[in-house]
Amino acid sequence: MFSDMTFWLCLAVSVVLFWSLPGRWRFGFVGLISFAYLFSLDGSLFSANGQFDSAALLTKNRQTLLHLIVWTGVFYVVCNNLSRFGRWRPYAVPSLVIGILCYLAYFKYVPTLLGYVAGKPLDKHILIPLGISYFSFKFIHYAIECSRGNIKAHSLSQFFAYIYLFPIFTAGPIERFDHFQNQQHRQLRRDDVILGSTRIVHGLIKKFVVAGVLLTSLQPFGTEQLLNNLDQLHFWDVWWFLVLSYLIIYMDFSAYSDIAIGASRLFGFTIMENFNWPVLAPNISNFWKRWHMTLANWCQAYVYMPTLGLTRQPYAAVFMTFLAIGLWHAGSLNFIAWGLYHGLGVSAYFAWNKVKRKKRWFFLERGKFKYWGVPVTFLYMAGSFAFTMTHQTGHPSEFYAALRILCAAFGVTLEA
Q1: Which positions are annotated as active-site residues?
Q2: Whole-model pTM?
Q3: Omega within 30 of 0 (cis) for the link into 173
C-alpha cells in the first residue's frame, strides 16, 4: 500500500483538508476519506469507456468494507446501550465477540479447513479480505472494554475514524480505543508534523533501502531454491537464510509500522508503538514485549489472562496465547506449528527461570552473563522463520518443507 502513489496523494490532500475543517467534522472526514481510499484499492468502478461496472463493486475487499459498515454500526449501538438490555446484558458482548470471530473464521480459516478435508490443492488465488484480522481484534477489544466501563463517551464518527483510519487499517498497529481517545491533539502542532514526517522517512529508508536493497542483496537464494538444494548445503548456509529472512521481515514490518504511526501523527493521532528493537531481546519473553507489541498486548489481555484465570495453569495459558497469535497470522499447519514453537520457547524460559531462582544463580543476571541470552534468543527467533518463509497457500506440504529447513539447520537431512 505504501509503495502506491495514490496513498501518498490521499495522505497529503486529506491532512490539509482535515486541519482546514472545524473540529466537530474532523473525525467524520477522516473516517469517510479512509473508507473511500480503502474502497479504491481494487481499482475503478468504471470501465475504460466510462460506464459503471457493477462487477467491480462485488470484489471481496469491497464486500468486506460494506460488511464492515454494518459491523461498525452494530458494535457501536450495542456497546453504547448495554444498560438497555436488562437481563440480556450478560449475553450482549459475548454474542458480538462470537459473531465477529465466526465472520473472521468464515473468510480466513474455513477455506483452508475445507481444503484439508476435501484433500484438494488449495487455491493460491483465494483472497483474504483486507485487514480482517486487525479490525476483528479492534472490535473485540472495543466491546470488552465498553462492558468493563473503560471507554469514555464518544461519537459514532470518532469510532468510525478509529476503525477505518487508513494508514493503520491493513498492517496495524492494533490500536486500543481508549488510547486513541486520549492521544488526540485538537490543534495542528509543529511537533506532530516534524515527528510524523521524520517517522515516515525512517520507515521508507528501512523498507526500500535497508530491507529492499541491502539485506535482500545479501540473501543468496529464495525459499524454493533453498529447498531444492537443501541436501547440498551446509547447515550454516541454512542459518544464513533464516537470519536474513528474519532481518528482512523485521525491517519490512517495522517500516510499515513507522510509516503508519508517522502518517497518523500528521492527523494529530499518536498511535501505539509496535516494535522496540526485538533483535536485542535478552530472552524470548522479553522479545514478545518488543515484537508486534500491540498484538502481544492484545493477546495477553484477552487470551492469556482469561485462560490463566480459568485453568490456573500458566503453561496452558502460554500455549493458548501463541496458538491464537499463530492463527491470527493464518489458519494453516505452518502457523499452528509456529505458535507452538514460540509457546515452547517461552515455556522453556519460564522453567529455566524457576531453576535459576531455586539454585540462586543470580550471577547469571549480572555483568556480562546477562548478555548471553541475546544471541540465543536471536537464533531461536530466526529458526521460527522456517515456518514463515515456507507458508504460501496453507497446504500441509509447506509444513513438511518448514521441518526440512529447521532440521537442516541442525545438520539433519529429511527426504524431499
Answers
A1: 329
A2: 0.91
A3: yes
